[in-house]
Design the sequence.
């Protein structure tokens, strides 16, 4: 159907041109700007739409149970590694620590007594004042006392560690989210508040680019293996929602391990530096990138191509300096040029300025642009 309308519209254009040609005055020949059709190496550029995500997230989970006694940050604000975020009431755990300290002191006292008994028993056994079995008994008591001290020391270290867990600090630099619990809530493993908040590192932000598998195989036919696409993308640029071009260029991160079954696409993740924290996770983004190696393409200036409904036309200047319209099939745009997939050949001359006054078979005075 498109081809049928194309013939009708093009035929109408030719008929109108014939009518105007009869009316053309025999005076000055119209001067037009022309450009020569060229074949150039053009990089294949693709556009993508996605959302930004953080570099990585750190989930803040309490390791001990207790009542939340304070929250030390403002929601959505930057935090630094080591900053205090929450405190849990340490009262119960402190009691456990005090008990462990007392148990250690008792074990050390027992060790001191066992050591003294053993040291007295050794010379007595040497002169047969005590039996060998009695010396073995004092030796065993001494070793058991040493082991009891080591066990008490470990219990105390564990108790102190748990008390230290009542202070929750940021493990990374990033933006902290809102708190899931409020002061006074019972938090910790096994409670409804086993996660308190999340910190997002946004030193860099990422966006996933989905490339149709058929297009990928065409552009990366000589690349192997398929999971390593370092160098496939270049000149990766980010355009924000308001049309602003982000000043920092993106870079390839990795290729996701699976091809999506629903869309048949291979997903490549790219990242952008975010030194001034101008970007936030969840932000809408338009990304463009050169994909694969440059291809040989027939190109013309974009102003040479005229759009009439679903038809694209260019005015070609013949060897006798007469013009006639040619229907073309444009491909992608590149730096002010149209790639023409069908309709033109290298060396053709096309009109780039003054096309509004042209009609079929009109004589022109072509001036190279």
Sequence:
């Amino acid at each position: 159907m498109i081809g049928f309308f194309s013939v009708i519209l093009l035929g109408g254009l030719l008929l109108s041109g014939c009518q105007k040609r009869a009316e053309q005055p025999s005076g000055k020949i119209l001067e037009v700007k022309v450009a020569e059709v060229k074949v150039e190496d053009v990089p294949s550029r693709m556009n993508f739409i996605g959302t930004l995500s953080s570099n990585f997230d750190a989930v803040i989970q309490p390791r001990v149970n207790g009542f939340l006694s304070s929250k030390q940050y403002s929601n959505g604000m930057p935090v630094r590694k080591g900053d205090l975020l929450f405190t849990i009431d340490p009262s119960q755990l402190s009691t456990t620590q005090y008990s462990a300290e007392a148990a250690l002191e008792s074990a050390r006292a027992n060790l001191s007594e066992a050591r003294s008994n053993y040291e007295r028993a050794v010379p007595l056994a040497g002169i047969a004042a005590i039996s060998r079995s009695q010396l073995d008994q004092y030796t065993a008591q001494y070793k058991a006392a040493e082991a009891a001290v080591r066990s008490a020391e470990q219990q105390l270290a564990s108790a102190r560690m748990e008390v230290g867990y009542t202070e929750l600090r940021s493990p990374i630099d990033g933006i902290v989210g809102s708190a899931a619990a409020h002061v006074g809530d019972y938090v910790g493993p096994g409670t409804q508040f086993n996660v308190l908040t999340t910190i997002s590192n946004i030193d860099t932000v990422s966006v996933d680019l989905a490339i149709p598998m058929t297009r990928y195989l065409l552009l990366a036919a000589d690349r192997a293996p398929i999971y390593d696409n370092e160098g496939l993308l270049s000149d990766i640029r980010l355009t924000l929602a308001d049309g602003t071009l982000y000043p920092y260029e993106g870079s390839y991160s990795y290729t996701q391990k699976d091809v999506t079954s629903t869309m048949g696409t291979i997903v490549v993740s790219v990242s952008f530096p975010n030194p001034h924290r101008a970007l936030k996770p969840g932000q809408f983004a338009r990304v463009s990138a050169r994909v694969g190696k440059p291809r040989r393409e027939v190109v013309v200036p974009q102003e040479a191509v005229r759009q009439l409904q679903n038809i694209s036309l260019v005015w070609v200047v013949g060897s006798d300096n007469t013009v006639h319209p040619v229907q073309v099939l444009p491909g992608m745009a590149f730096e002010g040029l149209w790639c023409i997939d069908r309709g033109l050949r290298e060396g053709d001359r096309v009109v780039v300025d003054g096309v509004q006054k042209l009609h079929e078979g009109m004589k022109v005075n072509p001036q190279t642009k």
